[in-house]
Predict the structure.
Amino acid sequence: PPTGELLQVVLVSPQIPGNTGCIARTCAASSVKLHLVEPLGFAVDDAKLKRAGLDYWPYVVVKVHSSWSEFREYFKKQDDPKRLLAFTKRGSFIHSEFTYRRGDWLVFGSETCGLAPEALAECSTGGSIRIPMVETYVRCLNLSVSVGIALYEASRQLGYEQMRGEHAEPPTCAKSFLTEDIFG
């Protein structure tokens, strides 16, 4: 079978610990790694973050990156195939009409500002994707809802492969929240 991760989720400057905790829980449920790109709007040991993730933290691998440039260097060192896919309100492709592939990294911006121009530019070769919605009364979807919609559509297209077999094994638990793989 092919090597490497099927999918990964990247949050760039998330601001609300409850959203990030819920996203971590979704990542645990779908056997997907989570990357947090600083600056964060909370401390990584925030009680609200831990509470939102409940007792699922041992089953998700979370890596914190000090900046977008540090994340970009980390990403470049990862095995191919890989692509960065930006999820944005103004995306070119509808999430359910886009064709996902093994090695896709689903990138989401902060709840207050979305993705920075630098991050959008880095994702341009992979694509910018939107989740359709009626904007008459609502500015945007909740970040954790958006990640869930995107992650499960990508997973569906890939036959939920990461949720079966060897990918479904829980990662080894870490003792410290501040290690490379926090909670996981």
